[in-house]
Amino acid sequence: MAKITASVYTSHVPAIGAALDLGKSNEPYWQPVFKGYEYSRQWMKDNKPDVIFLVYNDHATAFSLDMIPTFAIGCAESFTPADEGWGPRPVPVVQGHPELAAHIAQSVIQQDFDLTIVNKMDVDHGLTVPLSLMCGQPEAWPCPVIPFAVNVVQYPVPSGRRCFELGKAIRRAVESYDQPLNVQIWGTGGMSHQLQGPRAGLINKEFDNAFLDRLIADPEGQASMPHIDYVREAGSEGIELVMWLIARGAMADVAGGPAPKVAHRFYHVPASNTAVGHLILENT
Amino acid sequence: MSLDKPYLDVPGTTIFDAEQSRKGYHLNQFCMSLMKAANRARFKANERAYLDEWPMLEAQKLAVLARDLNRCIALGGNIYFLAKIGATDGKSFQQMAGSMTGMSEEQYRDMMIAGGRSVEGNRVVGENGDAQANRQPQGQSKQKASA
Fold this sequence. Notes:
The complex is a heterodimer.
Chain A: E1 3-10, H1 14-21, H2 31-35, H3 38-46, E2 51-56, E3 71-74, E4 78-81, E5 94-95, H4 98-110, E6 116-118, E7 122-123, H5 125-135, E8 145-150, H6 160-175, E9 182-188, H7 205-217, H8 219-223, H9 227-234, H10 242-249, E10 261-271, E11 274-282
Chain B: H1 18-23, H2 25-33, H3 37-45, H4 47-51, H5 58-65, H6 69-74, H7 79-88, H8 93-99, H9 105-113, H10 139-146
Helix pairs in contact in B: 2-7
């Protein structure tokens, strides 16, 4: 039986990817960001999963306004890093896990979540920056990845509650897979940031740290927070944080198991326009 | 029955909802086309001619030509789509975001390094924060405007 062993949460700021790709990670501006992930890169080596189920959002890359799926699961053999306008990031092609992805798609749809199945898709910084932060700059990513794209670009986006419930359904789907796979689920995006209008540059450390506290200790309570609170308190793009609730909903304690171990916690302002938050929770 | 839009009273913020998306469809799809290097080259060679290939509003085309991102957003643009214009111009996301505040690039960068814009006074229209309409533009442009 496959099992979710841990969840990882991280911002996916594009400038972090650019800093790595352009060899700027030792500059004073970026040093504190990458230092916050030193533990995580070692942790990834010590806790190498068989598959990463990576929850992220597409930023007008694979999905234009022609089609806007709320939840899309990548079932392809592989996914190419996209050219987002600056040219593609020089990172490895992402290998998928079509068998597990198809299994999860079938199971989760049968649990009443209407997933869009995607068999051909490029992946943008939302997916590749978390991989870079956790794995550094390898020749190949350490394991297959199932991309799971959530619409947080066009409102209304899915509620925190629905994301949390979806996480529960994903855990059940993984646990019903016959192969003994070690699966990690990652929730990415956030933390507080706003990229538009005269309010651009908004950061709210108090909100972000309260979110981290509550995500760890009271995810059910955090899931009941309405969208407007994220927009008002964490900026229009801070709404990405609902994706963290998908990963959190897939942890064992939500289904009556023991509380997860907080293996690592990190917070830093700024990376470009954004507050960087990061957590690693292990099922015990 | 009217729709629930509790986000209309957040200052300095336009939420990209289904209505904005409908208004901005062609503008945003034009932006998507700039993800191809050949299209970026063609756009740069003659911006007006390239824009005229799209069934966009004249006001949308003028806003693109002026690189007025606030105006683009008011006319249905979304920042993740508009970012393709910035990428074509060789601008970073920070330069694009900063351009919407009226602050200089340096002022905006310094604000971020100092911890970002405070939420105090910027939660609801009518408070006294720096993102409120009566305090625009911010930074350098404001100093120029009052000089």
